[in-house]
Every structure is written in structure tokens, then in C-alpha cells.
Design brief:
mainly beta
Length: 137
């Protein structure tokens, strides 16, 4: 995972799950990769599996009467270990509202790495390997 102007970059297979939304604005998660753009609605429980060599994640909101706009702030949490699976919580604030702290999270995602065959717990694994499978680097 790497931060890039307004978006996060990931590599390999991850599951994205929306844990919660606390805002009146519609939210969405955009995943852009080599094979196009996929949209995950920002509704609690929505989930998407992404399996590409390299892909980006961006969060947006739809204010009434407006177009989709990037969320004001997206904050990736630390990579943690959840029952042997590398995970990360990502929080986002769509726009600043009077009386709310700037780091208020109104969209919360969990990302789980799907190929977890790693020698070091809490470290994202490399490509999964099986007999007869050729992996190019």
C-alpha cells in the first residue's frame, strides 16, 4: 500500500468491506486498475474483492445537486494482523462541517489481504504459489 495524491495504491488481492457510514451524503469507493474502474457503494456491509498486480482506491461523496467529489481526507490506518490475515482500516471524511473535528470519520473501510502465505506475521504476502503456476516478476 502506498499513498498517492488523493488515493491509495495497493498490490495483489485484497477484499474491501465497508464497515460503516455516518453521513447524509452518498459515498462510494472507486477502484482503478489495469482492467478498468469498479465502484463499491458506501453502504455498510458492501464488499468487493480486487485481484490485480497494482490498483488504486479513492473515496468520493455526492453532495445534493452536485457531482461526485473526492472526500476531503482519507486516512489509512496501520497494517495489522487479524487471525493471520494482514488487514488495514481506512477512514474518510467527506467534507468539513461546523462543529465536527477535521478527522471525523464518516466512511470506514476494512481491507484484508487475501494471499496470506507469509513468513513474517503482519507483513503482506507475495504472490500465491502452486505447482505448475508460473509467476513473472
Amino acid at each position: 500500500m502506498r499513498w498517492e495524491a488523493g488515493m491509495l495504491r495497493y498490490h495483489g488481492p485484497w477484499r474491501i468491506t465497508v464497515l460503516g457510514k455516518d453521513t447524509d451524503f452518498e459515498q462510494r469507493v472507486l477502484v482503478r486498475g489495469r482492467y478498468g474502474t469498479r465502484v463499491l457503494p458506501g453502504c455498510a456491509g458492501a464488499s468487493l474483492v480486487v485481484d490485480e498486480d497494482s490498483w488504486t482506491l479513492a473515496l468520493e461523496h455526492l453532495a445534493p445537486g452536485r457531482l461526485w467529489r473526492p472526500n476531503l481526507r482519507t486516512t489509512p490506518g496501520p497494517l495489522t494482523d487479524r487471525d493471520g490475515t494482514p488487514c488495514q482500516v481506512v477512514t474518510s471524511n467527506d467534507c468539513h462541517r461546523s462543529g465536527k473535528p477535521l478527522d471525523y470519520a464518516n466512511l470506514v473501510l476494512r481491507l484484508e489481504r487475501l494471499d496470506t502465505a507469509s513468513d513474517t506475521p503482519g507483513t503482506p504476502a507475495g504472490p500465491a504459489r502452486s505447482p505448475g503456476l508460473r509467476i513473472r516478476y
